[in-house]
Prior knowledge:
Elements: E1 5-14, H1 22-33, E2 39-42, E3 47-51, H2 53-69, E4 74-82, H3 91-102, H4 110-114
Helix pairs in contact: 1-2
Amino acid sequence: MRDSVIADIRVLPFGTETPSLSHYVAECVNILKQAPDIKYQVTPMATVVEGPLERVLALVQQMHEIPFDRGVERVVTCVNIDDRRDKPITMESKVQAVEEKLGASPEITLAEITA
């Protein structure tokens, strides 16, 4: 079996009654909570997931359907996939690699460096 991929996902419903999308995000996160084999992190602009490619793509499809199930008639879903085959990657290892290049101590996070 292949190693995990990392993907960021944005589900963008168009023609909603309100400009707020947080309730759609919450429903997408509920799908991820039901997937114990998937790691995820909600960020201000996207949700990042880590898991087997086939599983991630299946979850993307489920998340894409949520706005349609709520009566929205147009949805754009954006997905970026990092599929590295030369060595295993994790969300944590990607952040750690950047922190090491910044010379950050283990107690300092990227958020603290950019603040």
